[in-house]
Write a structure and sequence with these properties.
96 residues, alpha+beta, 4-stranded antiparallel β-sheet, 31% helix
Length: 96
């Protein structure tokens, strides 16, 4: 599986984006990092993930603008829960 970053470009209607991500992805395949940033795991393309959430396409329903990027590599400092989730997802499993 791949990991995708979803970053909102505004706080306006942020609840609509959070609900759209929760509707599109099971709890084990999504992680909210902070108020404007989520990660999801999927085997689709960046365009498909963006459409699945409703950021673009016919079902925008008040969802604010956001940018979706695919994680190709990573490094940094974060809580262990984030690193563990990423490791499981990149190795192709789920963390249920």
């Amino acid at each position: 599986m791949a990991i995708f970053n979803i970053v909102a470009t505004t706080r306006e209607n942020i609840g609509a984006l959070d609900q759209a991500i929760a509707k599109a992805y099971d709890e084990s395949d999504r992680m909210r990092i902070n108020e404007l940033y989520w990660m999801v795991s999927d085997n689709k393309s960046t365009v498909d993930v963006t459409k699945k959430i409703g950021i673009v396409g016919p079902k925008q329903d008040g969802i604010p603008a956001a940018i979706v990027t695919k994680v190709e590599s990573y490094y940094g400092r974060a809580p262990n829960t984030i690193w563990e989730w990423m490791k499981v997802k990149l190795e192709g499993g789920n963390n249920d």
